[in-house]
Amino acid sequence: MSTVGIIANPVSGKDIRRLVAHGSVFDNQEKVRIVRRMLMGLAQVGVRRVVYMPDYYAIVERAGRGCQASVDATAINMHMENSQDDSTRAASLMADGGATCLIVLGGDGTCRAVAKGTTRVPLLPISTGTNNVFPWMVEASIAGLAAGLIATGRVPADEGTYRSSCLEVLFDDVVRDIALVDVAVYRDTFIASRAIWDLEKVSQIFMTRCRPDSIGLSAIGGQLRTILPEQHAGLHLCLGGDHRRVTAAIAPGLFQSVPVKSEVLMQVGEMIAVADSPCVLALDGEREVEVGRGGRVLIRLSESGPQVVDVRRTMDCAQKLGVFVHL
Amino acid sequence: MSIDKEKMIQMFATMTRIRQFETKLQEFFAAGKIPGFVHLYIGEEAVATGACATLRDQDYITSTHRGHGHLIAKGGDLKRMMAEIFGKRTGYCKGKGGSMHIADVELGILGANGIVGGGGPIANGAALASKYRGNDRVVVCFFGDGASNQGTTQEALNLASAWRLPVVFVNENNGYGISCPTCKSMAVADIADRAAAYDIPGVVVDGNDVTAVYEAVGEAVKRARTGDGPSLIECKTYRWRGHFEGDACVYRDDCELEDWVKKDPIPRFEKKLQAEGILSVEKAEAIRKAIAAELDAAIAFAEQSPLPEASEILEDVYA
Fold first, then answer.
1. What's B311's DSSP letter?
2. What percent of chain B has pLDDT over 70?
3. A15 and B223 in contact by Cβ < 8 A?
4. Which of A148, B52, B223, B316 gives the lowest tally of CB atoms within 10 Å of its CB?
5. At CA B54, angle to CA B50 and CA B57, rounded to 5?
């Protein structure tokens, strides 16, 4: 029997970017409604078993109470620390427990936490965060169908998914952390409220993807190049200088004109040094990693990011296979 | 985060001052030396410290029944605070108010408050006065998770937004309203979610990280001061002691407290300041000793001060 894992982050969409920018408000009740629609989609394509990460708002339990989806939903047995490590451990436990697809509700930061737990199991990320470059802005009913189609094998994984890239953060040649979308070098020593909105302190940005219609730090690169999510390439920007500026939406409703000194494409396996120390590295838009004075840190592009369910490709494939057509 | 080194050391000292003050009160209460109730702030020091560090001397705060930390962070006089808690005539309320009624208008402290949810309307009043007078004073309204369920708090949030008042509502969500966990008393888990109903920004921060509180409240204060109206900052934290001294805390597990003690905001900040070369081990120790001496002086002052006379009982009664 196919098992789908659900990781719904109760904290996503509540950080300081509601104050310094115009980030959307994703209250947890909306997440409940999203999961409810998703469960209906999963049930529709024959998924009968769901495991989920418990959380303080009981998002999945509340969702299950409000719909008649014929799905057996069970919380995984884990100690909650109410930190992003919960998502990492939940993903790892779900992969070990045989889940064949994971659905994640959150923003880029949540997806990163899940990817730290596993990249073995196909991931369908649904946007409920602030900067949503990695996850899909998608109707949850359809996301439920797509996840179920991949989980049950009714759509082959190689037809409906792609393998994403990631950026590895190496301290003394050992991988300490990863980012799925971007790494920013922030000339400060405090993590504080995590988000980044003061670009004057950013000296370098590394990214796995960028498009002109993107949001967040990768939007800066997106005005110069396009790297699609399924492409295994990266971009490294050095900020500063005075010969050109790029205007981009670095957070919802927050536009900044950013000086860009240079942009260089990165190949898989290529490593570029972090030029400042001490500093803080922002991973997928959130200050995460402190680098001490004299710290030697490298950023490496890897092609071993999570396998991502592409909702449109999955549904296109289902159409070709006539999955929802009955004679 | 733009914050100079001197201010960071001050914030460390403020948190330490609050911790030592509360720890002394804990000892005195257990020894039966304090009349009335005290509600201690141990574990939550980063919230008051980070929030008040963003304010100017002329700005205001409203406080709660758990107010010692707020008062100290806004510059309250330890001698007069201690004397008041001891019920002495030299205290802030001449010994007749106790822990929950300390105010110092000169310092912008508009009062601790024994009424849960009592601070919101007072904060709005002060903010309206600031707006009416055309000065740029800001009010920080501290309130707990229990107070967030009170009508007064919701009314205050609504009116502050409708009138674009310069108030920053700083919620201290320590997980319990008296003995009732928030999961049993609230339909939502994050108080910041309620901000959307009033069209104001609502933000959740780690209330045990003084820099996170400072940064979020600082942005909200900036917004309020420039006329953009109120904000709601929810600081997730935990009180180490019971609701009041003497509370046996039978409603919560010891392991829950142990998890939060590991997140103690003071050593966490001290360690970071030492790693950054901002505060040496010796300097930190010197700060602790200086504060201990300051407290000894406050305690001696309180102990040596006279009790109010019975004949004074009707003085300062306004209603």
1. G
2. 100
3. no
4. B316
5. 120
User: Is the CB of B220 inside 8 Å of chain A's CB atoms?
Assistant: yes
What is the value of pTM for the model shown? 0.92
Give CA–CA dist B239/A136, Å, rounded: 39
Q: Does B263 touch chain A (CB under 8 A)?
A: no
| Average pLDDT for A79-93 | 93
Q: Which of B193, B195, B212 sits opposite A193 (nearest CB)?
A: B212
CATH architecture of B5-306: 3-Layer(aba) Sandwich (3.40)
**A28: nearest CA partner in chain B:** B188
The verdict on B255 touching A (C-beta cutoff 8 Å) is no
Chain-chain contact of B220 with A19 (C-beta, under 8 angstroms): yes
Distances (CA, A) of A36 to A41, A49, A71, B26: 9, 14, 11, 48
Instruction: Say whether A11 and B211 touch across the interface (CB within 8 A).
Output: no
Whole-angstrom distance, CA of residue B190 vs CA of residue B105: 32
Closest residue on chain B to A26 (Cα): B193
Distance CA A168, CA A180 (A): 9
* Set of chain A residues whose Cβ sits within 8 Å of the Cβ of B223: 19
For A195, which DSSP code?
B
Chain B hits for A194, CB-CB cut-off 8 Å, are 212
Q: What are chain A's domains?
A: 3-164+306-321 (3.40.50.10330), 166-302 (2.60.200)
Question: What is the distance between the alpha carbons of residues B223 and A18, in angstroms, rounded to a whole number?
Answer: 12
State pLDDT tens for residues B237-265.
999 999 999 999 999 999 999 999 999 99
Write down the domain spans for chain B: 5-306
Q: From the candidates A17, A18, A24, which should be mutated to test the interface with B, based on the most B CB atoms within 10 A?
A: A18
3-state secondary structure of B62: strand
pLDDT at B1: 63
Neighbouring residues of B11: CB distance < 8 A, sequence distance ≥ 6: B49, B50, B53, B210, B214, B269
